[in-house]
Amino acid sequence: MQNPPDMESLQTEIAATAARLVVEEGLEYGPAKRRAVKQLRLPQRTALPANDAVEDAVREYIDIFCGDTQPAELAALRRLAVTWMERLVPFRPYLAGAVWHGTATRLSDVYIQLFCDDSKSAEIALIDHGVDYTPRTVSGFHGESVEALSLSSMSQELGEPVGVHLLVYDHDDLRGALKPDAKGRTPRGDLAAVRALLEEDEHE
Questions:
Q1: Each residue of 4-13: b (16+ CB within 10 Å) or e?
Q2: Using CA of residue 199, residue 78, residue 159, residue 62, what is the dihedral sign?
Q3: Is the dihedral of CA 69, 195, 180, 164 positive or negative?
Q4: In angstroms, rounded to a whole number, what is the distance separating the alpha carbons of residues 204 and 198?
Q5: Contact 18, 57 (CB under 8 A)
Q6: What is the spatial distance between Cα 168 and Cα 102, in angstroms, rounded to a whole number?
Q7: Is the domain 70-203 a CATH 3.30.460 member?
Q8: For 164-179, what is each residue's pLDDT tens digit?
Q9: Three-state secondary structure call for residue 160
Q10: 83-98 burial, b if ≥16 CB within 10 A, otherwise e?
């Protein structure tokens, strides 16, 4: 059953406003959608657009307003991700989120998912290398609570620090992690896949 046209246009407006907040302020999709509802002075219980709709709006916003700057910023973030993934090879790192899907700008954070035999091993490795991080709990790709190790890493190319979040999963979670998403895309990529994306970018 389709939404009435007015509901569809409302969701399109929310998605477009949220996309601007994602690109211009670096907000995550959830907070951006909620802020968009406030900015548009809509009732708090207004139905929110799906993340896929927001992502489409983000791509459109980037094409219109950031086409000259975003590709270089995305490449810089992917190179930073590769640096951390190389350091974290023993923990089977996979890049996810906007940096993987290509919608990241200089305000975006880097999300790397680790699939560990021992959930504490990645944290111990950071401690052993003197890396400052903040442990917290975030929602995982199945909506479950997942431990995240958040740190700040300087990007020489961007000339500013970037938030890097290491989400720690059990090794067994990797089996279901590579199923295509609703758009038929691989939802995350390993080190070889990210390097391949950077090579593609260089040849465009």
A1: eeeeeebbee
A2: positive
A3: negative
A4: 10
A5: yes
A6: 23
A7: yes
A8: 999 999 988 888 788 8
A9: strand
A10: ebbeebeebbbbbbbb
What count of residues does the chain have? 204
With helix as H, strand as E and coil as C, how does 41-61 read?
CCCCCCCCCCHHHHHHHHHHH
Distance CA 79, CA 105 (A): 13
CB contact set of 172 (below 8 Å; sequence gap of 6+): none
**For the chain, what percentages of helix, strand and coil (3-state, to nearest 5) are there?**
50, 20, 30
Q: What's the confidence (pLDDT) of residue 177?
A: 82
Over residues 64-75, the pLDDT tens digits come to 999 999 999 999
Q: Which residues make up the CATH 3.30.460 domain(s) of the chain?
A: 70-203
Which of 204, 20, 18 has its CA nearest to residue 105?
20
Cα–Cα distance between 167 and 160 in angstroms, integer? 22
